[in-house]
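Backbone description:
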Amino acid sequence: MDHQLECGCIELIRIIQPTDEERRNPKYVPRLEINSEAKKIISEKFQSPISILVYVGNTGVGKSKLASLTAGVLQREKYNQSLSPFLSGPDPKGVTHGVWMWREPLKDPNKSNKKGSILLLDCEGMGTLDQKTTANLYLFCMLISTAFAVVLRPARVERQQGERLQNALQGFANMKTPYVLPNLWLVPVELPHLMKNNKIISSNEWINEVLSVTECNNTLSTNENKLLETQYNYIRQMLPNINVANVSYLPICFRDDSQLADDIFTQLREASSECFYTSLSDVIRQLLKSGGKRLPGSYSNLLYVRPAELAHLMGDLIDIINADTSPNPDELIGKYLLERFEQEIVKKKIAEFQGNLLSTTKSYLKKNLRKRETETQMNDNNIILSNERNHLTKQYITEITKLAEEKIYGPHSILLTLELFKRSLDHVRKAMDEYQDPELLIEKIRSNFSTNDQNDQEKKQKILSDDTEQRLEKITERINREDLINASISGSELQVDLEQCSECGRTGGIVSIIHSKEVCSSKRNGNYYRYNDQEDVMVCDALNPTYDSGSLGLNGTGVNIAVVDGRINQAMRFSGSSSYFYAYDVYSGKSFSVSLWINPSSIATCTVVQTSYGLYNYACHNLLGFYSTTGSTMQILVQGYY
């Protein structure tokens, strides 16, 4: 598409045309492809909260034209005329193919502050695509949109459109994740008033009329009417809250598609377009009422998806859709929610647990351990401190679970019962158990009493006390840092003086900055920074291995990860020594074989250090690791199947 560089729009999703053989295969899954350049634009230029408006509908109803006019209304000033509108025009095969997006972030004209962006999408007109491709495009648009707007001309949901909506909604039927259904808007164009029998009616009355069958007013057979009624009932059952926003008549200057290349911004604001401009502005205001896009499946109204997060979610969602005839993104959504849970709740609470346990231990020892203990006293003290550890562990696990309900998942969410969340809590318990600073403090104090030199004891006690205070201060700094980072990411233009990114040197924690690959040595895109506990530095989201991690996400750290062509090499992660690693979701549903080389050395110095076979969940793994006596890994091989 040579015109992409000149257009105000850019292709987001492309439909990969099947071969003749694939068309004849009943098991063939239509394939979609996401444009990496569009993902970069979302990651780099957009700001959370992001409202995502998607126009869908039948071929030829004027979706693309309405999308271009929507962009014109949302522009706050006259934009560069090289930014051409969405392609539109009379073509029986349609003009828009796949899903296109406006490449510039748009702003809500009704908001005085600058926070947030509007992402405008134009979906291919339905009627020229096969049923499965249509359902997949609709499923994608429904999952990522804040307003799924079905453009109607004439002002009715006819049988084919009802069938397409039903097919797309059936993709949600087997999903267990709550809070994923779209906000459906019916948008009849060139309909200044909602009418019935020449009388203005309410929105609810109009929707009831449009989504009900009146046999005396149509030419369908009895069976066709029953089928249409079934479709309507299914749509209303799945989406109990359906809205309508009608658009007035198009001005004469916009009826000819060739004139859309002219100055839309100025023409919309001329006196001859005043009625239409007011009508479309009101429609946009209604479509934006639902606010910014939340992470799919999230309970909290404030758990907004972040730009880089949205871009990667789109890519991962396309992977899920391409992988199965009946795609179910439950696990994918669960992984994104779990990432937020671990970032925004777990990290801070583990730090609080550590600070509380160390502080409690210090206070107890200061009061009860002033001299060498008898064996009985030692056992009693060990039991008391062990009980305190168990008590705090239980207390913080309870708090973490409660916060997960309140801030992420919602009460009684099915996601809280899934193995993914349970494993995360197990990791939290393990992290708490592995925190041994209080026990080391006890050992050092007891060791001090092994000498009879009072001055030496006091000197060592002072050193231990100062060291413990420094540890507590560092924990407090970690807690405060997490608060500042989360506040700066979600706050309104809040800028916090945080540590710099170790890679590109920019200050972290600011959601509104533009972070492009030209200014970061990672040569990847992102727009916020987060603290990396393992490395004790700020890292940008483009360097965070949680992103670009394959369809099922990555459980890893920021080191020892091979990056190939901008992607982490099939989600491989080292654990412990450099001779052992895990492979996650290498190729879902298929056999796989992976060879990874790191710092090859002489074969003569290499020995086999580990071979293993295991069945974990639904994945079978065979692992063979070579390790060099000079200290560098030669080769790691993995084979298996899902």
Summary: The CA atoms of residues 245 and 283 lie 5 Å apart.
